[in-house]
Amino acid sequence: MALYVVGDLQGCLEPLKRLLDTVRFDPAADTLWLTGDLINRGPHSLEALRFVKGMGRNALTVLGNHDLHLLAVAYGPHKLKKKDTLDAILEAHDRETLLRWLLHRPLLHFDEPRNLTLVHAGVHPLWTLEQARVYAAELETVLRGDDAFEYFEEMYGDTPGHWADSHGGIDRLRAITNAFTRMRMCDLQGHLDMKYKGAPGGQPAGWFPWFDHPGRRATDTHILFGHWAALGVHEGAGVTALDSGCVWGARLTALRLTDDGQRDLVSVSCSS
């Protein structure tokens, strides 16, 4: 019996199928977690969404920024971007079933027995795990409620650039969204650099990868995340990053965890 945690899929379904074949994934015993961004930029977004949904309880995914972008186009006033590969989903006969399923995925999943936390981009370094769980639930309630259109209308934006408990309204929701789905670098005060996408080491002075922030508070759980292709597979203190750039022609990676404590990384090529 094993848990497989896979990095950003982004519509690259064929590599996922090869990866599951490689590890001999057993639906009767094994579980698949995904770090979000199931769709967009890759060649088979519709098929990937259907495949993961079709796995039922064998698969769990959190929401990523590309997933939220699809929902903002479908349920808000926004238009598709030039590089989006989402038309097939929006035109599919089962569009509403797929979108409603996606809308009900969490932003954060905490597995208490394993003490594992699954998110897309990370957990804000100034948040405890308990705070992060509360803020995730707060945004999930809005996504699934009557105010979803208003949220999607104002979802995009880099402000406020920092977290404050006093934030309210759309500023609060946007700050939560950006932390869970777009974050990479933070400064000592907890401001997010939403522009830098390169590997750690090239950022301006005074900025830290969120997981290396000197004041990081959610250190009582192991955080599994994706989103940062330039970081690649990374194992640090209490964190494992798993976006190995499949959509860019690199690799798709799974972290394999077994009940008897085995832990290893498996990957397959994504080049055409």
Give a verbal description of the structure.
There is one protein chain. The chain is of the alpha/beta class and 272 residues long. Helices cover 29% and strands 19% of the residues. The chain has one domain (2-269): 4-Layer Sandwich (Purple Acid Phosphatase, chain A, domain 2). It has helices at residues 13-22, 45-54, 65-75, 87-90, 95-103, 129-143, 148-154, 169-181; strands spanning 2-6, 31-34, 59-61, 109-111, 116-118, 185-187, 192-193, 207-209, 222-225, 234-236, 239-241, 251-258, 263-269. The protein has a five-stranded mixed β-sheet with strand order 3-2-1-12-13.
What can be said about this structure in brief?
This protein is an alpha/beta fold. It is built from eight helices and 13 strands. Helix 6 crosses helix 8.
CATH topology: Purple Acid Phosphatase, chain A, domain 2
Q: Number of folding domains?
A: 1
- In N-to-C order, the SSE pattern is EHEHEHHHEEHHHEEEEEEEE
* CATH architecture annotation name: 4-Layer Sandwich
CATH class: Alpha Beta
Question: Top keywords for this entry?
Answer:
272 residues, alpha/beta, Purple Acid Phosphatase, chain A, domain 2, 5-stranded mixed beta sheet
What is the element layout, followed by pairings?
Elements: E1 2-6, H1 13-22, E2 31-34, H2 45-54, E3 59-61, H3 65-75, H4 87-90, H5 95-103, E4 109-111, E5 116-118, H6 129-143, H7 148-154, H8 169-181, E6 185-187, E7 192-193, E8 207-209, E9 222-225, E10 234-236, E11 239-241, E12 251-258, E13 263-269
Parallel strand pairs: 1-2, 2-3, 5-9, 9-11
Antiparallel strand pairs: 1-12, 4-5, 6-7, 6-8, 10-11, 12-13
Helix pairs in contact: 3-7, 6-8
